[in-house]
Each structure stands twice: as C-alpha cells, then as structure tokens.
Amino acid sequence: MKNYKIGVIGGSGIYTLKNYKLFADNFDHEFHHKNTDIEKYGFENIEIFFLPRHGENHTILPHEIDYLANMQTLSELDVNGIISFCTVGSMDSRFKAGTYVVPIDIIDFTQNRKGSNFVKNNKHVNIQPVFDAGLVSFFKQIFIEKDIPLVNDGVLVVIEGPRFATHAEQIMYKTFGGTFVNMTQAQEIYLSHVFEIPFISLCHITDMTSIVEKEYDIYSNEAVSTFRSNNDKVENILTAFLSFVDKNNPEIKYNNPHQTFV
Fold first, then answer.
1. Model-level pTM?
2. Which domains, from first to last, does the chain contain?
3. How many beta carbons lie within 10 A of that of residue 259, not counting itself?
4. Tens digit of pLDDT for each residue in 39-92?
5. Torsional class of 21: left (φ above 0), alpha (ψ -120 to 50), beta (otherwise)
6. Angle at 86 between CA 80 and CA 92, to 5 degrees
7. CA–CA distance, 155 with 105 (Å, rounded to integer)
8. Contact indicator for 209, 164 with CB cutoff of 8 Å
9. What angle in degrees, to the nearest 10, is found between the helix axes of 221-248 and 133-146?
C-alpha cells in the first residue's frame, strides 16, 4: 500500500477541514515561507496538507496572495498532487450556478503577481495540458458516483481583482473565448508545472454575474446561498477522492514530457 501526501488549497469560505484527524494546527513545517499557514490532517494512510488560500479569516485578497511561497511549500513537502478548490462566475448561460467545472484552458489577465515569472534551471514553461489528466479522470468518476454535476469544458479567465469585472470587460472576455471568471488560479496552475506537481482546479460556479445579457446581483440571497453550499460539498468531494486513492492506490505522478524546453 502506497503512502500518499495530498495538498489541498481552500478558496473563499474554505478555511479549515472539519471531518479529518487534525495532526497539527499551523503545521510546523521547516520552510516557514511568509503567509503560508498549513494544517496537517490524516485520512487512512494519506497525509493531507491543507492551505487556506486567503488565510484563516479571508484576510488575504487575491492580488495579495504569495502564490510562490504557497506552491513552493507544497513542493518542498513533496506532495503527490494538489487539489485546488475555487469559486468562479459564469459567462455562459449553459453553465449554471452550483455546477463544478474543470476548465480546459486559461487566459491570464493578472499583473505583477508573485510567482508569475518564477522559473527553474532557466527554462521556458509549457503548461499544456493545463490540468493533470489522471486527476481529471479520477474526479470525473468520483463526481458521477456522488451524482454531483461536473463540467470538463470552457476557458477560465483569471483577472487581477479585487474588484469584479465590469460588463464591458465581460463582453471583452467572452469575445476572447472566455467562459468563466476567477481571481486566483493562473499562478497556481503555472507554478504546479514549474514544480512538476499533478494539479487540478475544482471550480464551483457561485454566480451568473458575468452573464451580460441580464442584470444579476452577486449579493442576492440566491448567490450567497449557492456560495455557502460549496462548504458542505468540498469535504464530501475530498473524502470521496481520498477513499478512492486509499482503495485503488493509483499512480499520481507528473507526466508532461514537454513541460519545459531550453
């Protein structure tokens, strides 16, 4: 039986894990990167290193996150793979609030974020395919078994934040081929390839604020209720994945031979 280390990054509203054995609060890892607080949990033979992206009480805004420190810490902890939970807005009426999405590509509109230009061994970085094929396959199976809608489609536009996009910007993003809008995933995706860690973003559509054909209040009761529903689903999904890993002992290994070139 293999011993696994799984990195989990929690997004808005996901600041801790409640249903697992907590080994260490603010896990005393040896790396001590600034603004990188990690909790260590256990599930069967699996070690879980949980990192709240926005801090314990959402005190770190998207443009303030030290993405490099976060991803470097998980790399130095030698995790087998990383599951990143995040929230997105939909710009396509086909994809409704409450659905989970694994996009197939990204467009990065962020600026001057830590980690955006980090390289190893003076190499260029190719991030295609964006997400690890093995993790995508595992989660497709898990979502079917849990009867939770999952879409593996669309293009995620990552914006600087912390302000939301204007309607004019949303029209532009759609013209460029964008499907969803988010403020955090570009650097995590990029750095997962730099550090050669299997990575997947599980994006929860919390609102339709980016459907420009109609007015929508992101602070409506409907939007807030959908946002909060993600909290209960995350650990349900994560437990299903950990159970799958514990039972099947799959190989979770970075497998992109064309990741870098000199």
1. 0.89
2. 4-248+255-261 (3.40.50.1580)
3. 16
4. 888 888 899 999 998 887 788 899 999 999 999 999 999 999 999 999 999 999
5. beta
6. 125
7. 5
8. yes
9. 110
